[in-house]
Amino acid sequence: MMGGGALLVFVLLYSLVFADHRSKLNVEREKITVSTVQKGIFDEYIVVTAVVQPLKTIRLDAVQGGYVVGKYLDGGTMVEKGDSILRLENQDLTLSYVNHETEIYRLINELQSTRLQLRQNRYQLESALSDLQAQLKAAKDLYDRNKLLYDDQVISEQEFLKYKIDYERLKEQNRIEVESQKYQEQNAELQIKQLEGTIDRTQRNLELMKASLDNLIIRAPISGLLSSIDVEVGSSISAGENIGQIDVIDGYKLRAQIDEHYISRLFAGLKASFEFGGKTHELTVRKVYPEVLNGRFEVDLEFAGAAPEGIRRGLSLPVRVGLGKSAEAVLLSSGGFFSHTGGNWVYVLDGDGTRAVKRSITLGRKNPEYFEVLEGLQPGEKVITSSYDNFGDKEVLQMN
């Protein structure tokens, strides 16, 4: 009895002190994914979807608004610089042009009439001045002869003064007439100059309006592929509205939309790559667009060499974009565990693989394939990397 009691006490003490009281869960080995921690080169990169685009795209915008009355080319057509694509009609613009044209003809006729009138007035004034100067010459002749007679006391002073007054009056009249004609000549020249300036301004306006009428025919600004034309005959187009685009097809680039989380880490010159036609092709980040829309921003990538054979506009490709230099690190395969643990702990299998125990870890950088392990794991250890959603908060998993 004493021996039995001692055995019972020993069993109870062992159970309390040495037995494993951690929470456990039995799991089926076939339903989990196990990855081996390894040491290797860590490449920090992201995988994005990029779309093939031409190196240069020219937007077709309507300079003038109007109704489409003619469509000469459809999307997908090769065009040469200057080819007509659309013809618009704008009745208000046409009517305004006709009114300005009529106005300039009226002004030209008015200028011609003014010049003719001024020429006639000049002849009349010259004739009047000629008569006045003839009278002045005759009066001076009388004045000179009568002055001699007066000096010889042949005629009276009263008679001499009459000739003198006539001569002085005609002399002053001649001076006034000369100044008046000079003023009228200057005024006439000013009127002509003003009319010529008005005609010049009206002609310039008319030329601008003619250019606006020419813009009603939309032509190709460069040679290339008319990739889209988004209007039909009868459509109404506003000034400045985009109606299509022309692609310069002497080369291609890739454009990718990337989550705004990476905007501070991407810059021109970063390397990228993609798989196409069974080969890896190198790319370089050419331009980062800073504008963020709906949580994403755009990046242009250019080919390190010639574009691969078979690349076409609009083709979508998965592109691997590097974010930093490669470095040696302890690596853990990515998996569903991270969404449950946040990378703070994992289940690590023991040596014989019969159970897995929860262990705290510290993770660093990540890429689509691996996490960088900073603390808690050693190369060669095996970790459950599949989802932990069905394990609850169990500390030990027993493998079945």
Automatic annotation (TrEMBL):
Pfam families: RND-MFP_C. This is HlyD family secretion protein. Keywords: Coiled coil. It is found in: Cell envelope. It comes from Anseongella ginsenosidimutans. Residues 340-389 form the Multidrug resistance protein MdtA-like C-terminal permuted SH3 domain. GO terms for cellular component: cell envelope. Residues 108-142, 173-219 form a coiled coil.
